[in-house]
Amino acid sequence: MTVSARTNKKSLALLVPMYNEEESIPLFFPAIKTVMAEVDVDYKIICVDDGSSDNTLKMLLAEASKDEHVQVVALSRNFGKEAAMTAALDYVEADAAIPIDADLQDPPELIGEMVAKWREGFDVVYAKRVSRDADTAMKRSSAGSFYKLFNKLSQIKIPENVGDFRLMDSKVLEALKCLPEKDRFMKGIFCWPGFSSYTVEFERQERAAGDTKFNYWKLWNFALSGI
What we know:
Oligomer: single chain
Structural class: alpha/beta
Helix content: 25-40%
Largest sheet: 7 strands, mixed
Distance between the termini: 33 Å
Number of helices: 8
Number of strands: 7
Strand order of the largest sheet: 3-2-1-4-6-5-7
Radius of gyration: 17 Å
């Protein structure tokens, strides 16, 4: 495991892919920093700009210039969230990492509980949505059908209603870095290494700002890619 050179604290990396999130950024950083001030870890916020066409990269660089906790990775164009998350993994030098969305639908307040379960000895701490009431009826139905089909076809099961938001120990991260897949389906890739796991539940909120970058066509292609 990697241990902070300055202290005996554990270290944690937050992995944040961003694409055109200029409206979310002013809300995201204050929320994250408030939570991390209460969590006894050294931390980095690794933000990957996925070829944004708005002011996302400019705002991220401004944030990094005034806060040593913020690290910015800029991709040359828009490659998609799975590629951006893979890029973020390459920059992790920490005892554990948590992928988290910038729109605050993944509640930062859950990080403390996830870290506590990790300290108890769990290598992976899943964050599971207790309901999908915020989704449309079509999205709830299609999501449920996807999980059932995927888990019927695959020997590696993915937990239902669990997204990228999870804590992963460094041993899990090292296993992930060994996977060479070009077509990346991170929900499946994150589950493949195994290791001991625990699940915490949460209510997923509406986006704090901005609009989702996914549409049904992209979600359909994403589901086919995963299968």
